Task: structure prediction
Amino acid sequence: MNLTHTLELFDTPKPARVDCSITAQDKGRVFYEGTYWPAQLYPAVVGATYALAPSSWVTVIGRRGLTLLVSPPIAASYA
Result:
């Protein structure tokens, strides 16, 4: 079974903390539910110039293989 192209969107988005910055062009890493995961923006917006900085919060909305798909935070704060 090839998991690299398996796309799963979660029913309930959950928060994660950025460990290595994430941009529209580059994957990063997040700390999610007790472990570190590779992560990328979803959807990847072509031409987007912002970065999700380390220690900031993101919303995990799904996964593609072992890479989590994240977006900027939906809620105002996860503290």
In short: The mean pLDDT is 86.
